[in-house]
TrEMBL record:
<feature type="transmembrane region" description="Helical">
    <location>
        <begin position="46"/>
        <end position="65"/>
    </location>
</feature>
<dbReference type="InterPro" id="IPR021836">
    <property type="entry name" value="DUF3429"/>
</dbReference>
<feature type="transmembrane region" description="Helical">
    <location>
        <begin position="77"/>
        <end position="109"/>
    </location>
</feature>
<protein>
    <recommendedName>
        <fullName>DUF3429 domain-containing protein</fullName>
    </recommendedName>
</protein>
<dbReference type="Pfam" id="PF11911">
    <property type="entry name" value="DUF3429"/>
</dbReference>
<keyword id="KW-0472">Membrane</keyword>
<keyword id="KW-0812">Transmembrane</keyword>
<keyword id="KW-1133">Transmembrane helix</keyword>
<feature type="transmembrane region" description="Helical">
    <location>
        <begin position="129"/>
        <end position="147"/>
    </location>
</feature>
Amino acid sequence: MIPRAALILGLAGLIPFGFGLATILSPALAEATIRAIGPRFAGQYVLIAYGTVILCFMSGVLWGFTAKGAEHNWTGYALSVAPALWAFFFVGGGATQALAALLTGFVVLLVIDQQFSLWGLTPPWWMKLRLLLTAGVALCLAGGIWLG
């Protein structure tokens, strides 16, 4: 069972992704957002900015898991920095390219999460949470690509 705090905070972390997609679907919401708090919180921009932050954050999470398992240190540490390096090198080149790179990064991150889980470095509920959150992120990023 996923701990309540991890589930609630994980789902709350989907709010900026959902809001970004909502501002793509609703020009009125996008316009109101731009007027109230600025363009960086609307549309594809918020999806790209927040997606990059979260992909890099997940590198830190994986780094912490790696510290638990000396047996897989080199591989674990190398895999843990991969999401941040992916974001640094591949998120750019226009909105569609950036969103596609992020979508790919989050799918690959899920594969890395699974490997860490197989190594016994993650809590037993980790993959349930990661599958749920990755599905939400992927839907929002894909929506940003196709509707943006």
